[in-house]
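for the record, two folds in this file. i put them one after another cuz i was lazy. first one right below, seq on top, structure tokens after. the second one comes after a little note so u can tell where it starts
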Amino acid sequence: MNNLLSFWLAPVTALFHPRVFHDASKRSAWKGVLYVFYLSVIAGVLITVLMLSRMLPVANEFVSWAQKTMPVVIWTPEGISLENGQTTALLSHPKYGPLVAFDMTKTSANEADMDKAPLLVTSTKVFMKRAPGQIEERDITKAGIQTDKQLPPKIRITGAVVGGLFKVIKSTMLLIVPPVMIVLFFFFLLIVDLLYSLVGLLFNMMRKQKLRYGAIFSLTCFATTASFTLTWLQIMTPLRKLPLPFVVMILVNLVYMFVAFKITDTEDAKV
């Protein structure tokens, strides 16, 4: 069987084509490792597509709103203030509601103060409401930053500054996130397949023609493609609204593994 069907298209063909498993059962463990890396690259590409199609439009819209509505904030080593003599301001999103409250007259915050927004900014501190009754604070003065580097005497934070910072973060994420996710998916899938291969050892005991562990691992990697493909099909389509329990995905993998070990327990059929 050619590599196009047995490897490159295996995320799809493994769902229904028995010859994918016949080919995998004749390969070493390295074929399985290479296939896991291939699936990881696919996952990295799909995550990038999700970022571009779903996450970034929402983030762009939010930042655009923040640029137009946020007050101008002046930071110095002694703390912050609002431009034009303002002492209070409230950032309330039309969809998400109140997000950040500014109050330069306060030095502390209690539960009642945090009812206005989950984030309260005063002249020297930022208060974050983590949970009911749980308020975390951060010192935003020079003493709280604790750095040996020379701090600027004054920073004027405007909507334009926020927009520029967002562009830098967005560009950095598009460069860093895909390769990082590929590496994370690779090790995650590799560990998962190693665990499933233990079940593969049990299935191998039921075979007339026993396989070496390398072939067992390779066959396991291709058989567990089912859950990978179904998971991403759910994420990338309207099917994401339907629940897909983790236990169901385990059962799907085990069924495909059982079938794969069963149908390959014969003389290799001709393509």
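(here's the note) second protein begins now
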Amino acid sequence: MSESGTTAPEPDELEIFDVLPEGSATSLLACRVCGALVPSERGCPRVHWDWHEATNGA
């Protein structure tokens, strides 16, 4: 039985990305939603995921 008032856990932002093969100077992730290449460091994947979750429908 589920408790009332509980929400589903927030999904992991990395679930929308595919890891590109090694060999570049920086590790890049490919967004499965829009195809953008996103650096894997400095919080960039989270920022990109937040952009998709924005209320403007991005």
